[in-house]
Structure formats: structure tokens, C-alpha cells
Amino acid sequence: MFREDLSRNFGIILHDVARLLRLSYDRRMRALGLTRSQWWVLTHLYRNDGVTQSELAQVLEIDKPSLGRLLDRMETNGWVTREEDAKDRRAKRVLLTQEVGPAMKTMRAAAAETRKEALFEISEREQEQFVDTLLKLKANLASLENRTSCEESPLEKTTESVGQ
Predict the structure, then answer these.
(1) Region of 3 on the Ramachandran plot (φ > 0 left; ψ -120 to 50 alpha; else beta)
(2) Pairwise CA distance, residues 77 & 98, whole Å
(3) C-alpha closest to that of 95 among 36, 61, 44, 39
(4) Angle, to 10 degrees, between the axis of helix 36-47 and the axis of helix 10-32?
(5) Which positions ≥6 away from 28 have C-beta within 8 Å?
(6) pLDDT band at 64 (very low <50, low <70, confident <90, very high)
(7) Exposure pattern of 41-63 as b/e (b: 16+ CB <10 Å)?
(8) Is 141 a residue whose pLDDT tops 60?
């Protein structure tokens, strides 16, 4: 059986690094009493406050009912609020509250410390190159995803030709 050497496979390495970053950050957030789901929502809202609940579910890759329950708890804690969208009454926009400000400040400091530890003994030039490379990878994959989502899937083509 063919065995590929995966020790330098960048996809696996990237996954492992992301997992280790999450674990390190999880440990810091537990001290604040935040679960991974909660800090993940807060971080995404910090990055893009006011997104719709549907958009947030999509970017977090969780189903809408699960996100709804999580947001219910976070709203009860005073961390977020949901408001009707001005253009679509069915949509709810999710916003950070003023009350979550001190926690966000602590979260951002913990994130900076986690990154600092992860980048230990990596020169500033290497860090810049690394981020530039990640941004190129992200752009390549986003472009591929956009092209792929615009094309018909082979299953759709087969289904259409059978029906004719």
C-alpha cells in the first residue's frame, strides 16, 4: 500500500498549528469563564460586528438553531444583542454590547500573548513572510471556492440529462 510522507504536508501542519493555537487560547479563556463557542462568536463579532445571525452561522460553520441557543445565553449574559435588520425584517443582526468591552480587551491581550508564544524565535522578517504566504493561500483557496461554487456539479449535470 502507498504511504505518503505527511510530516511536511502543509495542510496537516496547518491544521495541527491551528488546533494547538485554539487549545492554548482555550486555556486562557477558561480562566475568564468563556467556552470555545463563546469566544469564537465574540471574536468574529469583534472582527465584523453587526453581521446577520445567518452570516455568523455560515462563517462559524454551525447550524442556525445551535447558534441561536448560544446567542440566547450570550444575550442573557449581556454580551450581545440582536436587532432586526433594517432591510429584511426576517434577519437579525448580532452586535456586541458595551458590557462585553472589558472581556474583549482581555481576550485581545490573551490572543496577542498566544501569538507571541507561537512566534517565539521566529524573526520579524520570517513572520511577515509567513503571513504574506498565508494570505496568498487564502486568496488562492477563496478564488477556487468562488469558481467551484459557480460551476454546476457533475451530479446536477447527470440529473438534468437523465430527465431529458
Answers:
(1) beta
(2) 12
(3) 44
(4) 100
(5) 110, 113, 114
(6) very high
(7) bbbbbeeeeebbbeebbeebeee
(8) yes
